[in-house]
Amino acid sequence: SGGAPSKKSVYKLLRKKEKIVIPQRTTFLCNGFKWGPEHSERTYQVHNLSSDMHEVQLPFILNPVTRHYRKLAFDLGGNYAIFGVDKKIPIFVNEENFFGHTLITGNVGTGKTVLQRLLSSSMLHLGHIVLVVDPKNDYQWQDGLKEECESLGKPFMHFHAGNPSTSVSYDVSANYVKDTDLSARIMSIISGTEGGEDPFLRIAEGLVTTAIGALKLGGTKPTIQNIYYAIRSKQDLIVTTRNALRGFYTYHLGNDWHLTVQVSQNLALADEIDKLKEYFYCNYFEDNSPKNLHGMDTVLECYKYISGDESHYYKITASLMPMLKRLSQTPMDILLSANDVANPNRNIVNSHGLFNSGGVLYISLDGLSDPATARDLSQLITSDIAAEAGSRYNTASDLSTVPRVSIFIDEAHQAVNMQLINLLAQGRAAKIALFISTQTISDFVSATSADTADRLTGLCNNYISTRVTDAKTQELVLTKVGQTNVSMNQVTYTTSASTKQSHTNFNGSISERKSTTMVSSIPQELLSMIPTLHFIACLQDGRKIVGQMPITVPGKSMRRSTTVVDMVMTSPYKLKLRRNLDVEEILSKSQKVG
User: Fold this and answer.
1) Rounded distance, CA 81 to CA 289, Å?
2) Which strands sit side by side in the sheet containing 534-538, from one edge to the other?
3) Within the chain, which residue ranges are assigned CATH 3.40.50.300?
4) What are phi and psi of 487, to 5 degrees?
5) How many CA atoms lie less than 13 Å away from 514 in the CB half-sphere?
6) Which residues of the chain have pLDDT under 50?
7) Which of 233, 304, 413, 578 has its CB 3.0 to 4.6 Å from that of 447, i.e. a possible disulfide?
8) Which residues have C-beta within 8 Å of that of residue 81, sequence separation ≥ 6?
């Protein structure tokens, strides 16, 4: 492992060498090798060695060096049978591969975040807009991207649910075409991935749509907080209806509408509602049918909801209110529902602006202290991004010219909803690449269903796995890498003797039989022994790669590589092995780019 030799990407450094032809849209992935049948053969042979490895003996003189590698192997854990069967070379991946989307699985502490740090920096250097949804707020990932943005002259924005004073605000309700777009975005948090056949949810979605229309009619922006206040109780909905009627009359009668309607604005709420309702039904209906006017449907829907039974109202909003309350209380009110007028000094971003301005938006969800709000935020932001992707289809005449976007979602099982699945299915044409990470496939099954988990894995053309112990995840890895023929040697020894013959008379024979058998390319038990910072990758281009991921660190934090002299003179317990990426070495080994 090691860090980059400078702030520049490996790609840019490699381009300086005229002898090496590297595609312009290619990025460095790891040091590893392409997996083939010969590696399976060697792996099974190494895996069958004795536990003390007495079959492999190294010269005693190498002990001062090998002791450090034994210590490193102990620290990283696992079994190197998969990764030591061939010489590692630099592995490059074409950018188009990643637009098939990437699924990353692996146990805690095996290097998933390290890999995402590398991939996100690579995408940023390729000119992508990068959006990171991180429930843990990984400081190394965040600081690395921030420094990359500074070196490239691109903006870095940080949304931090646990630190609102320094966080930007994210306006999730800024971009929508129809009122139903925004209501569906909100309801996706509680409707999940099954589409939602609960009639109360469908009625609640209609209520949210009505509230959005009523707020707009009354001259109020439909933010998450304003929607919550508009429908928090039936009394609040009555106030919302009154404001919508005032806006309706202002639109059709002008600012002096109260003179025409003959209503005083100092009336009590109930009396004013009655006056407004009376004028509405007397003047905007013909033959008992409403006229086709702006805002007519919204007002009628408001009357329908406030005229119903109050107990029924609370039933239809029972599943909706807790979620809206979480997203409207402090500090979420400032982070999700800020506006330029009330918060003139606050940096407010939205998906449309981000997709056009470029740079990085790093979203820290504070998932450990408030997992429910983190889950809601993750799904809401995912839905907003999906809506922005849809608007690209509607507004961009040539999608080949729009900025490319890479979205990294850590602990992706918290973000799964129908919008995420639709984004995986249709995001490629909108130039959006998703990198979703989770620990096990069972996380998806637990959060959604087995069928939805299968859909998620099926929609990702690239699959990368570090160490996994879950049986379902191991089965997925084995399915991806496939099977191969492995040679089997069978040796038979036979001897025979008889008491009826001379003691010098005996028979003996030796037979050897060689055959092949179809087995998994990689032994299943080795998947739970993959060393930390190592992975198995199945890429869209058909390659199966096993490799060791580099650790990206800021240039100012780089320390020199460990030398043989260091290893001879220093105890393994006082020395950490480092091997920085050497551009010249990469060039010498990279005769072609796959």
Assistant:
1) 78
2) 89-94, 26-34, 544-548, 534-538, 462-465, 102-105, 432-438, 405-409, 129-134, 360-364, 156-160
3) 10-168+347-482+523-589
4) -70, 145
5) 3
6) 1-23, 591-594
7) 413
8) 43, 46, 47, 523, 526, 529
Which one-letter amino acid corresponds to residue 365?
Answer: L
Q: Name the β-bridge partners of 279.
A: none
* C-alpha R_g of the chain: 32
Which residue has tokens 């979205």? 407
**Contact at 8 Å (CB) between 381 and 173?**
no
3-class secondary-structure state, position 554: coil
Residues 6+ apart with CB under 8 A from 415: 133, 375, 378, 379, 381, 382, 409, 436
Q: Are 336 and 172 in contact (CB under 8 A)?
A: yes
Distance, in Å, from the CA atom of 352 to the CA atom of 129, rounded to the nearest integer, reads 12
Q: For the segment 208-265, what is each residue's pLDDT rounded down to a tens digit? A: 999 999 999 999 999 999 999 999 999 999 999 999 999 999 999 999 998 898 888 7
Say how many C-beta atoms besides its own lie within 10 A of residue 178's C-beta: 10
pLDDT for 17 equals 41
Q: Are 369 and 166 within 8 A, CB to CB?
A: no
Nearest to 225 by CA among 177, 169, 280: 169
Q: What is the CATH number of domain 10-168+347-482+523-589?
A: 3.40.50.300
Which residues 6+ apart lie within 8 Å of 285 measured at CB?
291
Q: How far is CA 134 from CA 139, 160, 377, 535, in A?
A: 10, 10, 11, 21
- Name the pairing type of β-strands 129-134 and 405-409: parallel
